[in-house]
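Tokens in:
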């Protein structure tokens, strides 16, 4: 299933898309400045984050009372901590700790309510205690899972990285990513995941975990 343009969807909902487009430019600048945890290719993480936003907005439009601006910004910045000037080892384990410090450079310059700020902190710090109660956080996380299944370029870079750590490890790590389909709880997420799941499973010869 093809995901609709998130900007077009946001415009129909009355969201200020200039803020979202500015956030995308901020994202590009940060990853281009430091791409060592973007498989030394900034476009991989830039495209990933924008795709997560597209899918997250598609899901969020089906959820009543969901803050679409927060979902958009949270999706765009959910991995921006990986652009921090730290070692890959540190970023692998702790990138969420850097999400807020980098994203706040942009967020401090726009008008957000205190409620919106708290929700964005839930998303960017990946707070486990708010995951089930914060719908925007759940939407971004599920969109992130789906996006990996959809993005063959990211899969190939991830596979090469995992193989570099230990030969034979690449397929094992891809299977773990695919298995995350079982964690999807929102009906729209499940719908959007069906085709990417099958495509990824067939491409890499992975096990079917939905049966």
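Residues out:
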């Amino acid at each position: 299933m093809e995901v609709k343009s998130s900007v077009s969807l946001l415009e129909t909902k009355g969201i200020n898309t200039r803020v979202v487009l500015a956030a995308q430019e901020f994202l590009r600048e940060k990853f281009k400045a430091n791409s060592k945890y973007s498989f030394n290719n900034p476009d991989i993480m830039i495209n990933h984050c924008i795709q997560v936003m597209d899918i997250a907005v598609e899901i969020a439009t089906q959820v009543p009372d969901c803050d679409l601006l927060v979902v958009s910004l949270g999706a765009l910045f959910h991995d921006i901590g990986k652009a921090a000037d730290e070692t890959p080892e540190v970023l692998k384990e702790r990138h969420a700790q850097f999400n807020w410090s980098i994203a706040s450079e942009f967020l401090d310059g726009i008008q957000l309510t205190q409620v919106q700020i708290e929700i964005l902190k839930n998303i960017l710090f990946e707070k486990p205690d708010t995951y089930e109660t914060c719908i925007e956080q759940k939407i971004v996380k599920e969109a992130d899972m789906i996006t990996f299944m959809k993005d063959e370029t990211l899969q190939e870079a991830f596979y090469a990285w995992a193989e570099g750590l230990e030969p034979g490890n690449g397929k094992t790590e891809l299977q773990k990513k695919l298995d995350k389909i079982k964690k999807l709880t929102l009906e729209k997420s499940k719908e959007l995941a069906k085709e990417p799941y099958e495509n990824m499973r067939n491409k890499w010869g992975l096990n079917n975990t939905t049966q």
